[in-house]
Amino acid sequence: MYASELIKGTLKTIVLKLLTDNERMYGYEITQKVKESTSGKIQLTEGALYPTLHAMEKQGILSTEVENVGNRIRKYYKVTPTGKKLADDKVNEFSAFMETMMILLDIQPKLS
Amino acid sequence: MYASELIKGTLKTIVLKLLTDNERMYGYEITQKVKESTSGKIQLTEGALYPTLHAMEKQGILSTEVENVGNRIRKYYKVTPTGKKLADDKVNEFSAFMETMMILLDIQPKLS
DNA sequence: AAATATACATAAGAAAATTAGGTATATAAA
DNA sequence: TTTATATACCTAATTTTCTTATGTATATTT
Do A5 and B7 lie within an 8 Å CB cutoff? Predict the structure, then answer.
């Protein structure tokens, strides 16, 4: 796990990226997907995720579809067209930010 | 300029890196150096920097030397031995974090 | 039967930054 | 020469964002 301060500010970017790649996902699914694809190094907390999802819906970045799975409720999120543009911008911005930080901290990326 | 939320959490790492490379620097100098070497893309605000410097001194990460330059005061900061270890850790952690984010966001670093 | 996993949610508090203000000297421009 | 900009420090109120804690409820595994 990384120091939480590092992860700060990247939540929206991560959510938008996952939702552009996956058509629709529900909150809990997002937490599990991030945990899995980062080998547990990034773990989104529900206390941070849910309020952010609600805010993004309110802002028209995401839309929702509620479904009943058995007796449980499941709330799927999708990116709106507005959200798609924002997703691109956010990912590109993070990419550029990384380039800048690599220069500033004098670090090289691992080649894969 | 990057969205401020992106830069959040990186302030201490940036300060520690600069101070390990430069022996000693004063607050204003740090803001200018960062601005210059990122072509203005990262601009530290004094309201964020000074309280952080004070906190780091209190924690034994940095030590200070006050000097008079003309009629003005200048407060130089240096990393303590404790700070040197932390600087390494912080930079390595950010580096690892970037690797993780590159996988998660599916972005490649520019080769230089 | 109890513990863990799934799945949502909110609310109090902490942490970290922004914004805005304050003091003061030095230098460049109008 | 006065005004604006640059240098150089600082703090305080507010905002933003996250953590921690808690709550509800069903499903599944031990």
Answer: no
